[in-house]
Amino acid sequence: MNRQLVLSDDILMQVDKPARYIGGEINCILKDPNDVDIRFAMCFPDVYEIGMSHIGLQILYGMFNNMPDVWCERVFSPWTDLDKIMRELGIPLFTLESQSRVRDMDFLGITIQFEMCYTNILQILDLSGIPLHASDRTWDDPIVIGGGPCTYNPEPIAEFFDMFYIGEGETRYRELLDLYKEYRKNGRSRYEFLESAAHLGGIYVPQMYETSYKPDGTIDSFRPIRPDIPDHIDKEIVEDISTAYYPDKPIVPFIKVTQDRVVVEIQRGCIRGCRFCQAGMLYRPVRERDVEGLKDLAIRLLDNTGQEEISLSSLSSSDYSKLEELVDFLIEECGDRTVNISLPSLRIDNFSVDAMSKVQDVRKTSVTFAPEAGSQRMRDVINKGITEEHILRGARMAFEAGWTRIKLYFMLGLPGETKEDIEEIAVLSDKIAREFFDAVPKEKRINGPVQIVTSTSFFVPKPFTAFQWASQDTKESFRDKAYILRQAVVSQLNQKRIKYNWHETDVSVLEGIMARGDRRLSPAIELAYKKGCLYDAWSDTYRDDLWMESFAECGIDISFYTTRVRELDEIFPWDFLSCGVSKEYLKAEWLRSKEGVVTPNCADKCNGCGAGRYGVGICTKPRLSS
Amino acid sequence: MNDSRIKVRIKFSKHGPVKFVGHLDFMRYFQKCIRRAKIDIAYSEGFSPHQIMSFATALGVGIETDGDYLDIECNSVTSCEDMMDRLNATMAEGVRIENVVILPEGTPNAMSSVAAAGYKLICKNGSGFGNDLTEAANRVLNSDSIIIRKENKKAKKKGRAIEGINDYIEEDIKDRIYKAELYADRFECLVDASSAGNVRPLNLLDLICKEAGMTLDPLNIQIIRTDLYLMKDNRLTPLDLSSDTIQI
Q1: A-chain residues near B94 (CB < 8 A)
Q2: Core vs surface per residue A99-124: b (16+ CB within 10 A) or e
Q3: Domain boundaries defined on chain A
Q4: Beta-strand relationship, A107-111 and A38-44
Q5: Nearest C-alpha of chain B: how many angstroms from A11?
Q6: Residue A534 distance to chain B (closest CA, Å)
Q7: Separation of alpha carbons A230 and A252, rounded Å
Q8: Among residues A88, A208, A252, B29, which one has the fewest Cβ atoms lying within 10 Å of its Cβ?
């Protein structure tokens, strides 16, 4: 029997891509509501095609639905066309599977992957009819719980959440759901439940904490409102990643989504200690999945989905110890099945060039490098751990194998950056072009001349990185730097072979405000939403004017969050959380970056970052110690 | 064309929410179904091989079908029943495989075979079509010619009208309507669906409404395609060559 949709045929015929709102895809889970105790709405606050590309959502969806007493369903942001219709007609937001009201769920879990989705979170709450402020909610509303990387500084949106789950979702949900069932059965109040949940590991209940500020605006103290509430919260971590739950029947969307393929997560965490990278710190220590299990998983994923493409996921796939074995297996298995393999950005060496030539058409694809900075000095500052020689050698290998298109990713606005550092980006791009003309003689240039695409994003300092103390550049400075680089590119010998792209400046400033923001930002977020800000990550819908108006009306000084120089002893809004890596270690890394001193990666030497206290992954392997 | 390959025709139905999945996405959906069902489909040559699969005709977003078709080429087959069972085991809600047949050698492909299509147009609100419309339908359908006006694609280039060419052209579709009848709650018709003479059922219903002095709201109509036919010995035969042929 077909499910009844919330949206009428007339509405669905009016909106773009109506299949976003119908559910019913292959492998989506339907249960009888009478057979379960807990209804969980899992939300990715962006449009369907983005949300369905996120592997974390598929993991938690599968994990919850594996629990017999739980039915987990999906919710995404309605696109602006449907948003308008739902407001006009007063249609409440619904889950895709059962097309039930989100407000009728027990939990609304929101995964927060980037700062630019904050207004979309308010849209989800608003369209669901759930009060925006956690303190205004009753048992008529679901428990609103946030997870994902942005919860490592949840303070700007703390007001809107009942709780945050800090860390990896596989470990603590069962306990939380059991606690919920017990409190509901015994008729306890919502507040009592929140109080009790605040004692669970990894659970942060913002209402149970208060902040006071110094006259200069920085934090004076952040503490629980009662002594029994924990004063700091440690992230949750999966100890044995090989046996952790992983979905082998992910949902197969009807419409083409951004990542339209099955994904095998090969490891979690990263051994590299890039000083700008938040993910590199949050997910320490690195933990590898067993390669035999991954081979078996790959087969089951392809069988159960019928997808035409498979990809590997990790922060740095080249560091996975059994990568060659896994890729060789996939090439053989996928060739038989006519399945494409999409290799993630790998370090360019003999193995990866060989593997890429087997799975890609050199004429149609490009090879990607992310040197992040142009000069060696700057690459040492950010602890990137690669030299110009590595890059040129890798490019040469790719050229010799037939590739002509190279993509290069850099950041502008890194701490201590000089004009020369910026110009070096153009020089390096040109050197790569020269490498092509040197490596490939004229008669062998059958695939055309070299094409280099150099892209820059603007650096945004993030919590739990060595650069959390750094001053962010202003909008004007970002623009000037992009201009310097553009001038430098056009003055190169091979300038016609180099295309330069740069990222929007306005959005980087807003991202910077939110990334290191505090509780005082929430009124401005709410005001911006009420003025009409939505889908801030999309350049077509981003309204910088409305955001700036909102900050001004709320009396917020943007420079306090972005360009201000933070003192070494400042209390940060996120200091009460821990991702394992200690503040002392980050501070030492910040000071080393100023000296341009590099730090070895975790595989070469333990640097004592603090994540070793979890006693898992690479931290248990014998290595040099500090 | 490889002679050792076996041509298979699949008849499917599509009802309910899945009608909002457009034709291109539905093709991708079917490619994945074929993989999950482990049908030994043939692939094209080249660096990015694709399944040899062609649909008889596209189904517009929002339209349901009792019988649409696709042809595939296989390297090997089990039985039609087994293939049908395996495909049905992996269908999404609202999609069913209605029949699987192995085509005799030399059968023209589904796309070029389509001669006619049957449709049911259902009035979604409960009020139905009413007596005024029944009389108008009789007048339109029994007249000597049935003229529809359609936009002249040649008359517009990049949105600008070209002088000397009419914006609309008129066509007599009388002999392309094989059957048509208006009931209280629905309109049924069997019309030409060949690439040269395709008749859109909504245009016909629109004409009837205009005759009755009414405006048709297309959002109030659920279109269901009932089957697709090929012409064989002057009879319309369903594309899966079943025995339900219609003499015209």
Answers
A1: 2, 24
A2: bbbbbbbbbbbbbbbbbbbbbbbbbb
A3: 9-234, 261-359+596-626, 361-503
A4: parallel
A5: 9
A6: 26
A7: 41
A8: A88
Chain A nearest C-alpha distance from B24 (Å): 9
Out of B26, B90, B92, closest to residue A24 by CB: B92
- Separation CA A222–CA A213 (nearest Å): 9
Q: Is the peptide bond before A224 cis (omega within 30 degrees of 0)?
A: no
Closest partner residue to A252 among B22, B32, B94, by Cβ? Answer: B32
**B222 at interface of A, judged by CB pairs closer than 8 A:** yes
**Which residue has tokens 């017990």?**
A182
Say if domain A361-503 classifies as CATH 3.40.50.170.
Answer: no
Question: In this predicted structure, what is the pLDDT of residue B162?
Answer: 64
Express each pLDDT in A414-458 by its tens digit: 999 999 999 999 999 999 999 999 999 999 898 889 999 999 999
Write down the residue that tokens 């219709």 correspond to: A85
Which chain A residues have a beta carbon less than 8 Å from that of B95?
none
Per DSSP, which regions of A52-106 are E strands? Answer: 70-76
Residue pLDDT, tens place only, B74-105: 999 999 999 999 999 999 999 999 999 999 88
Strands (E) in A9-160, as ranges, are 38-44, 70-76, 107-111, 143-147
Work out the end-to-end distance of chain A between its first and last CA atoms, rounded to an integer number of angstroms. Answer: 64
d(CA B28, CA A533): 35
Per the CB < 8 A criterion, the answer to whether A314 and A268 are in contact is: yes
In 3D space, the residue among A64, A12, A75, A57 whose CA is nearest the CA of residue A36 turns out to be: A64
A361-503 matches A261-359+596-626 in CATH topology: yes
Amino acid identity at A272 = R
**Domain A261-359+596-626 CATH assignment equals 1.10.3720.10:** no
- For the domain spanning B6-112, the CATH number is 3.30.70.580
Nearest Cα residue in chain A from B94: A2
Chain A touched by B60 (CB under 8 Å): no
| Binary contact (B29, A340; C-beta < 8 A) | no
**Cα A255 to Cα A18: distance, rounded to the nearest angstrom:** 10
Q: What is the average pLDDT across B38-58?
A: 92
CA-based nearest distance A34→chain B, Å: 21
- Chain B residue nearest residue A363, CA to CA: B47
Q: Which tokens hold the place of A139?
A: 């048992």
Contact residues, chain A, for B33 at CB < 8 Å: 306
Asked if this assembly's ipTM is beyond 0.95, the reply is: no
Alpha carbon of B112: minimum distance to chain A alpha carbons (Å)? 27
CB A164 within 8 A of CB A146: yes
CATH for A9-234 (3.10.180.10, 3.40.50.10050, 3.40.50.720, 3.40.640.10):
3.40.50.720
For residue A357, what is the nearest residue in chain B, using CA coordinates? B47
* Chain B residues inside the 8 Å CB shell of A365: none
Token pair belonging to A603: 């595989």
Q: Which of A399, A394, A390, A408 is nearest to A438 (CA)?
A: A399
CA-based nearest residue to A578, from A624, A545, A609: A609
Tell me whether residues B21 and A3 touch, CB distance under 8 A.
no
A454 and A489 in contact (C-beta within 8 Å)?
yes
Q: How far is A261 from chain B (nearest CA, A)?
A: 11
A24: left (phi over 0), alpha (psi -120 to 50) or beta: left
Is B22's Cβ below 8 Å from some Cβ in A? yes
Give the whole-angstrom CA distance, residue A350 versus residue A354. Answer: 6
Question: Given pLDDT bands bounded at 50, 70 and 90, which one contains residue B3?
Answer: low
Nearest chain A residue (CA) to B49: A338
Query: What single string gives the DSSP state of each residue in A322-363?
Result: THHHHHHHHHHHHHHHT-EEE------SHHHHHHHHHHS-TT
